Amino acid sequence: MRYFFHISFKGTHFSGWQRQRMGVVSVQEVLENALQKVTGLQISVMGCGRTDSGVHASQFFAHFDAETMPDVNKLNFTLPDSIVVHEVIPVSNEAHARYDAISRTYNFLFHTLKNPYNSELSTYLNSPILYPDRMTEACQWIKDTQDFRGFCKTPERHNTTLCEITECHWHFSPENSMVFTITANRFLKSMVRILAQDLIDLGNGVITATEFKSRLAGNRVGQINKIAYPQGLYLSKVVYKSNVFGRQMEAVVSPGLSSFHNI
Predict the structure, then answer these.
(1) Cβ-Cβ contacts under 8 Å for 199 (sequence gap 6 or more)
(2) Fewer Cβ atoms within 10 A, N terminus or C terminus of the chain?
(3) Mean per-residue pLDDT for 63-81?
(4) pLDDT at position 123 over 70
(5) Which DSSP category does 147 fall into?
């Protein structure tokens, strides 16, 4: 029988979702180890995607095959506080956590007033944004773009660098914070962090609108050496084909996200 995990995790002390080399702790490894303790079996888990080191997920799905459904309470008791299983959902044997997802949404939280309580849940910028209207305007340019090869750390590892962006916008709060939201059918390696950094550079006059548009057109000069820090980035919503669950899965809002207004 195939099951889906509906989970969320705080990625601060993980190397990302994907299992890594020995000695590097990932969310996948910790979840699989907890499954083994609860069921006595070695069970492999397939995630809905990968996340960078330090990135969080307020909604994440993974599938696995087992003869019986594991007990959610026992799993949560075994897991560290930074990972929570919200639900275990029986699905068809053909359902796939990665390939059946039709869209993913990321929220990227930033704050410009140093705050020790935000340090693990939001990315600190040491100065306010000078021209937020430029960042807002550029979001439409992003939505009009299809090929994001210039916003990927490892484009050669992807069969295609085409992505369909259906949502892209900033919300600026008077409380010295802002949120970048983007939804697409797929994302490339570090794509959201690269886009966010370039938008921030545009908003602070580090790069011009002409240079930003040139990068969108695939004409980035030099290598990508500067990307936004990961601690404010959340995979916040994953939408599946209607036949996977038969219902819409509600995302769990983290304290980090809920502290920002009108997201």
Answers:
(1) 135, 138, 139, 170, 180, 212
(2) N
(3) 95
(4) yes
(5) B
Q: What is the rounded distance in angstroms from the CA atom of residue 12 to the CA atom of residue 82?
A: 9
Greatest Cα-to-Cα distance within the chain, rounded to the nearest angstrom:
58
Provide the percentage of residues in the chain whose pLDDT is more than 70.
93
Neighbours of 90 (CB within 10 A): 10
The yes-or-no answer on residue 52 being catalytic is yes
Is residue 19 pLDDT above 90, yes or no?
Answer: no
pLDDT tops 60 at residue 261: no
| Cα(113)–Cα(147) distance, integer angstroms | 35
- At 57 the three-state DSSP class reads strand
For residue 132, the tally of other CB atoms under 10 A from its CB is: 15
Contact 192, 232 (CB under 8 A): no
Tell me if residue 28 falls in helix, strand or coil: helix
Active-site position among 52, 100, 198, 201:
52
Least Cα distance to 222 among 232, 231, 230, 214 occurs for: 214
How far is it, in rounded angstroms, from Cα 122 to Cα 242?
33
